[in-house]
Amino acid sequence: MKVFLMYRERDFHPEHEITQYEQDLIQDLGLDVLFETMSGGSEYLLDVVRSAVLSCETEVDTILYRQGVLKDCIRNADVVREIYGIAVDAIENRRKHHLGIFSITPSTILSGSVGLLKMLLEMLKRLKGATDRYSNRFESDGFRQFFGILKQELTDEFFAEADGLLRELKFEGGAMVRAQLDKGNEGGNYTLVRKRKRRWLENVFSKVPLGNASSYTFKLHPRDDSGFRALSEIKDRAVNPVANTIAQSADHVLGFFEKLRREMAFYIGALNLYEKLSALDEPVAFPIPVASGEFHHSFRGLYDPCLAVSMNGRVVGNTLNLHDKKFSIVTGANQGGKSTFLRSIGVAQILMQCGMFVPAEYFSANVCSRVFTHFVREEDKEMESGKLEEELRRMDSIIEEITPNSIVLFNESFASTNEREGSEIARQVVSALVEADIKLFFVTHMYEFANYFYTECRGDVAFLVAERKEDGTRTFKIVEGKPSATSYGRDLYERILAPLWHSDNKVAM
Amino acid sequence: MGDFGSLLYERPQEIVSAELTREPEFFADLNIDQIINDMVAGKEYYNLKPYFYLPLRDVDTVYYRHEVARDLENPVLFDDVKGFSDEMQKVRRYLAMVEKLDYSYNKEGWFLEAVDTYCGALALLKEKLCTVELNSKGLKAFRDYLNAYMSSDGFAALRGGMQRLKQRLSDISYCVLINGGRVTVCRYEGEDEYIPEVERVFQKFKDGSTKEYSMKMLPRVGMNHVEAEIVKGVVRFYPDVFGELSSYYERNLDFIDEKVERFDREVQFYVSYFDYINALKKMGLQFCYPEVSADSKEVYLYEGFDMALARMSIRRGSGVVCNSFYLRNGERVIVVTGPNQGGKTTFARMFGQVHYFASLGLPVAGRKAKLFLPDGIFTHFERKEDITDLRGKLEDDLVRMRDILQRINSGSIVVINEIFSSTSTVDAVFLAKKVLEKIIQMDAIAVCVTFLDELASLNRKVVSMVATVDPDDPTIRTYRVVRNAADGRAYAVSIAQKYHLTYRQLRERLKL
Q1: Distance from CA of A187 to the nearest CA of B (A)
Q2: pLDDT at residue A204 in the model
Q3: A49, A72, A355, B54 — which has fewest CB within 10 A?
Q4: In this complex, which of B169, B175, B215 lies closest to A177 when CB atoms are compared?
Q5: Quick check: B218 contacting A, CB < 8 Å?
Q6: Rounded to a whole number, what is the distance in Å from the CA of B87 to chain A's nearest CA?
């Protein structure tokens, strides 16, 4: 039974392994805050949500399909949480049916699995009940397909047949075993058969002409322990394949609930984030994805949701139209919101591509094949020697992985050497990437690098700066503007460090 | 019936009671004990060791075995023969079990399996022997015998009776209703199975991988009283079949043919050897059928190796270095000198091994060989124990050497490894020269591994061979042993040079 809430025509299989590249992405964009909010403390949700969010879907149809399901979820949050709860209950209840590990025999496997299946059938009935009550409230393709399958498969006839089989497997009146003579005239090929005979089949299966007697009965002495052991071994051999099938059937039903939980977990996570951002009075919007190949990026009020959650309040949003821009270079004042802006670009791209809403009033961008980050690292700053090498090594591994239509976010890259060298390296790297149709955002204070592109007067490059008012105060907004030679870091220096020199030389560090 | 005697001896009168012999003394020194133990491991039933303890001095019998061995080198035939032996082992296992079982229908049932396996194995073997080309007298005689045996009325009755009974027994199906301690045996009347029904009802949930829950039910052999009681019920339904089975069993108790059994055992002599050397061949090592002589001591071997060491190299994944030797123009003694761990002892073992396996009538390690069939192999290897008591050790060495020298003659091969290392060099040279002179006097063949350069130029019957090192880096041993004059000092000097410790180098370094 298919669930298909994540993809129109296939199952969702979250990746549990986090690649180095995803690790970098999580660290650079600060996604842990996002994942925590979405998972609400559930490790299971965390696992699925992390995988789903990082999956970077490239099909516009898949993105829109999920947007539809998510809109249904937002409208019917209670029902969705109830259905998710049934799946969770089914999986949790399974533990009660765990078999002891010491007395496992085919018979105990059978009785354990029959019990488990009974419980799962009850859960299926609950699911059927919820379907019957609420399915007409849902509008998305995903949910309508899902409820349709439930109605078609979970029929009264199915429940009646399943209950009947499970009742029979309790063997009231004894177990009937069919056998054949194996090597050494020893009984073999023991097969559990149904006592309910089908008369019309009589003798059809018996190739041997009938002999004299019709049946032979004997009774074991009540204290014949070895005899009882021998009998139960025969029974176990017959039960073994049936127990296997029943246990597998229980697994399959359980598998359905696991699938249901898996396919819904992402939406539960999205609901959690939605509710959190609503509580902070931050806007969200369902983005308009544009097919890859075009270069498009326009948004209103785009903010970094991780920052908002961390600050527990509203944060500054940016509004820009970067249509036809392959490369956006951001310069300007330190602590002017450049890194936050860069992160908001990355987070929005990732959220859009997993089918979620984005942190903005309006957002539209082309779909990218992958999102890469190349951020200067805190730990790098302490490690003087080999820092450029480390940066270049990371760049090298990005180049190993990169595909056309990817997006790369650079944050102060290649600045660990002098500006001339750093600019030259950055210039060469960027020029090549842009020619390869890879979209780039580059936050830098390397004027030489920024100015190179500015003087080229290219139409596909956007020049952005951290806004600074006439009086020098920062607005933390990113606006269009030409790169300027001076770094605003000087005023930080003046304010924080310089006094140490001016006031008292001995305090100098 | 065809006339088949033995795969090992052309003339059946030669077949001695192999079981009486014991392991030759030199086996341990030449590591032949390891080789033989590896070969016969898992084949204890056949008691093959005695075959390996009986070297031949008769050239014709050696070539009789070469023929059989060459036929068996056909991989198709070889695998089939092994398959046949596996089946015969199974037959014997079944019969041993039949002896132990309690219930007659159980015994008789397993007896049928033994007969079935025996007939099947023979049929397959016969088919293979008739389709491959055979050139050896030994295998051709067996093939003819087998054809005659299997066309006999006795064999036809044995096989036909077994097949009929098995068919009738396997057609029987019955049901057992188990309700507590009450058991009812009845005929099977088309009752439905559960699995298809369960699968149908839950089919809709099936998706992807499936975990296995069926428990491993250990195959159990032999009936207990409950099973016997159930079969009793089945016998009531089909009394004729079971009656026929009992009389078949009585009629055919000793069904295995004596000559088939002899073939089965003797062919293992070749099978075990080939299994061992095929692993070495896979590494690219070569084996050859040596030309043999009981008279000529003009021997040679090209690209031979120590089989025991080669076997170990497989396990370690290291390579094997091959070496050659020859003796001509009256040469009798090879004196091997060179660096420690340079392959000298390995060379000496190889020399002994190839001569021994040649005298068993088997292919030997090497590309091409002409070898002598000795009437005795004697070894004198340094003993590791009691090294504190040097005087006692020398004495022991001399006593052992004396015993050997007393027994050798012109048909002997002597392998000496590092003798008299427990005394002064002057003493050692003196004693060793005496020993070699005695060996030469007896006209025996010998290999002598020693650090005493003086022995290498004793007289014109002595050949000097040296374990060599890499000319560019004397710490690297090549494990190649070549004909060359002995010079132990040259080696020591070049090692010192590498570590800048020669006299001149030390002056420079110490700025003298």
Answers
A1: 7
A2: 40
A3: B54
A4: B175
A5: no
A6: 16
What is the per-residue pLDDT for A356? 97
Assess A379–B contact: CB distance below 8 Å, yes or no: no
Task: Quote the pLDDT of residue A400.
Answer: 77
Q: How far apart are CA A417 and CA A424, in angstroms?
A: 11
Farthest-apart Cα atoms in chain A, separation = 120
The whole-angstrom distance between A194's CA and the closest CA on chain B is 5
Residues 196-235 on A with a CB inside 8 Å of B are 196-198, 201-208, 210-222, 224, 226-228, 230-231, 233-235
Domains defined for chain A, CATH in brackets: 20-170+249-279 (no CATH), 288-507 (3.40.50.300)
Report, as an integer, the average pLDDT of B494-500.
Answer: 52
Q: What is the DSSP string of A167-218?
A: HHTT-TT-EEEEEEE-GGG-EEEEEEE-SS--GGGTTTS--SPP-S-SEEEE
Q: Which long-range contacts (CB under 8 A, 24 or more apart) does A74-82 make?
A: A74/A271, A74/A274, A75/A137, A76/A134, A76/A137, A76/A138, A77/A271, A79/A130, A79/A134, A79/A137, A80/A264, A80/A267, A80/A268, A80/A271, A81/A268, A81/A271, A82/A130
Distance between CA atoms of residues B389 and A28, nearest Å: 75
Token pair for B277: 């050397």
Backbone phi, psi, residue A135, to 5°: -60, -25
Give the lowest-confidence range in A4-8, A60-64, A468-472, B403-407: A468-472
A52 φ, ψ to 5°?
Answer: -65, -45
Residue A14 distance to chain B (closest CA, Å): 15
Contact A187 B180 (CB under 8 A): no
Structure tokens at A509: 């560090």
Q: From edge to edge, which strands make up the β-sheet containing A474-480?
A: A371-375, A407-411, A439-443, A327-332, A461-468, A474-480
Strands (E), A429-498: 439-443, 461-468, 474-480
Q: What confidence score (pLDDT) does residue B376 get? A: 94
- Does A255 contact chain B (CB < 8 Å)? yes
pLDDT for residue A201 is more than 50: no
Tell how many helices (H) and how many strands (E) occur in chain A: 17, 13
Distance CA B29, CA B23 (A): 12
Q: B194–A158: do the CB atoms touch at under 8 Å? A: no
Opening angle at CA A479, ends A478 and A482, nearest 5: 115
Question: What does DSSP assign to residue A497?
Answer: I
A76 Cβ under 8 Å from any chain B Cβ: no
pLDDT of residue A426: 82
Q: Which secondary structure element, helix H or strand E, spans residue A246, and what is its range?
A: helix A225-279
Q: Does B235 touch chain A (CB under 8 A)?
A: no
Name the residue in chain B with its Cα closest to that of A182.
Answer: B170
A485 and chain B in contact, CB less than 8 A: no
Least confident of A272-281, A323-332, A467-476, B328-337: A467-476
Instruction: Report the C-alpha gap between A97 and A116 in whole angstroms.
Output: 6
Predicted pLDDT of residue B510: 44
SS3 A478: strand
Alpha-carbon span B381 to B359, nearest angstrom: 22
Sort out which chain B residues have CB atoms less than 8 A from A255's CB and list them: 205, 207-208
**Hey, where are the domains in chain B?**
29-169+254-266, 173-205+223-237, 283-509
Token couple for B121: 């194995």
**Dist CA B449 CA B29 (whole Å):** 13
CA A164 to chain CA centroid, nearest Å: 39
Its ipTM equals 0.79
Instruction: Give me the amino acid identity at B319.
Output: G
C-alpha span between A390 and A383 (Å, rounded): 10
Superfamily of domain B283-509: P-loop containing nucleotide triphosphate hydrolases (3.40.50.300)
Q: How far apart are CA A356 and CA A284, in angstroms?
A: 10
